[in-house]
Amino acid sequence: MNLNLKNEFILDAVTAPLRDERLSSKENGLGELHSAYILVIGPESGLRSYVEECLKAVSNEKDLHLTIGISDMNGSGRVVRCESCGHKRGTEVVRPPKDTDLWNIRYSHVIITGYSNAAFPKRERLSEELNDIIGRVAAMKPAKAVFLSDNRVYKRSDDNILLSEHERLDKEGGNTAGILERYVVRKLRKEAGISLAVLRPAPVIGPETGIRNTITELAEAVSKEKTIKLPYSPKCTSFIYINDLLNAVMYALAVKGVHGVFNVASGNSDIRNVEEVIAGLRRAFPEKCKLCISGAEKNNPYKDMITMSSDKLALAGFKPKVDFDDAMELYTAYLIRKESGIDPDGRNFRFSKDYNGKLERVHEILMQQILVVDEICKRNNIKYFLGGGTLLGAIRHHGFIPWDDDVDIMMLREDYDRFLSVLDRELPEGIFVQLPDTEKLNHQPFLKLRIDDTKFSTEFTSKFPKMHNGIFIDILAQDATAPSAAGRKLHIFETRIIRSMVFNKWGGTRISYGRSRAVNGLVNAGKDILPMKLLERNMFRTFRKYQGRKTGYLYDSMGRNLGRGEFPAEYLDKVIYTDFEGYKLPVPERYDEYLTWLYGDYMKEVPVSERHISHSIVWMDFGKYLD
């Protein structure tokens, strides 16, 4: 089965291990697999394809030079060699599907996806396959083997006890999952002495896995807008999203000391019954969810639902990333796009619960503010550019990034000062000019234009309830910095120190700048002793240190990109206009170079599972602007 890696939902899962902090660590992480020979065994399925593509992605991104064998349960398959170079996608050399080619390699690692969460073949065929395949693996004695069993090894019950690895195991003769798992453990770990990790996934959720269960069927019903009445049952279920299952597989494969039997499930508190699942789907997809609960049954009608403890794997350091609500929304959104053909690759997906469904209205209000700034600048011949994520949205999405919630505008210093000078006469009523000079509780170094009679408080600004906390756009100057490399380094260092002193004095927190106790002690003492007015005066003087000089370099003196350092001033020499939400707005002519400096591969999408809003808004009230 070939996975469509252009689809953002699928790519998000395949690349999930690359975003895991533990797996990305230099020691005892994915780097342990460098130059490894890895064999993946299982019937052709979505799950086996995910493991294969995940290994390729890891190899190419981490420059691991993996050799990957892919085998079905009959021993036939192919070999893929990943020759990678940094962040470039590697060259895959695929050998012909000859049994002798595949099995003449001495593999260092083996992953057996087997029939995890899938239908088993008849006993006679399964026995024949296992005797052959597991015998071959035992004979090659890899350094590590990972076997994907599943939750069917447990006895089913109506209660919601979180089952640990040795509780309520179904050892009856008819339990194929249990028989298969015990056979693999006996042959590989007990008889061959191979380091073995057995993973038991809870019911799996994710696109194109080929796995079906009660939860995936509910999502499919919503995607097709089916009207279904379901019986109520208090029985809950754990789950695992495909991203986290792949993380667990890579974790078991690469991290030293992870061996034995492990449940792979969502957090112990992240379980749901059917009624709760439907309620979540209705919140995320109110127009499409036509599921409802009708009556109750004495016995649990949802036989595949099971609650499993994930404590053992958590103690080994593994942490699931995708919670139940996000998993259901991701999978259902994928199915809806597949069904409708609208945004099929998920480029414009965002989570519905952000801002309680008000994010589109936020964008509309912010767009009106942008147009106010645009009109003022046109009337006064002031040059400005869309900046930061707003510029990125203009180029990549021709409008707002769908999950972004703010606006950044940047100006050269001389234009910024001219813009400030005309605001008193040009700005319409209902918009507040927020600067340290205009509001004593505010100590942000840049201009915010806030809408009166609204609330849009972040976690930080909510500490100052008497400060104007309306919906805002940010306008920032881009200042000149030193002509020499050493001078630029010193100027940026000075800026970082003085900004830290102002911000931490404002927030009542201590500065921790690097590992130098002497530097930290000095700047904290200065912060505590010096009055805020003096600190701010020094901060603005530092910004303007090279004002009026053509040094050839600029830096984001006021903004969050200070840590990126300097960039060539010529990036902001000329303006061109591009489409933004149906309007023509200004961006740098050399936006490609600027965005590459700022973001690297700026056309690379944010993984869909991470598309939550960027600000931690804790108080939101649109007032009259809601409608």
Instruction: Report on the biggest sheet.
Output: 8 strands, mixed
CATH class of the largest domain: Alpha Beta
Mean pLDDT: 92
> What is the CATH architecture assignment of the largest domain?
3-Layer(aba) Sandwich
**Uncertain stretches:** 85-91, 93-100
* Helical segment count: 18
Portion in strands: 15-25%
Cross-sheet strand order for the largest sheet? 4-3-2-1-5-6-7-12
Distance between the termini: 48 Å
Under CATH, the homologous superfamily of the largest domain reads: NAD(P)-binding Rossmann-like Domain
Q: What class do helices, strands and sheet pairing give?
A: alpha/beta
Task: Fill in the CATH topology of the largest domain.
Answer: Rossmann fold
The total count of strands amounts to 25
Global Rg: 29 Å
Q: Which bin fits the share of residues in helices?
A: 25-40%
Total number of distinct structural domains: 3
Q: So what's the overall shape?
A: globular
Folded structure, characterized:
The protein is of the alpha/beta class and 627 residues long. It has 3 domains: 8-340, NAD(P)-binding Rossmann-like Domain (Rossmann fold), CATH 3.40.50; 354-480 and 549-625, Beta Polymerase, domain 2, CATH 3.30.460; 482-545, no CATH class. 36% of the residues lie in helices and 19% in strands. The chain has 18 helices and 25 strands. The model is unreliable at 85-91 and 93-100 (pLDDT under 50).
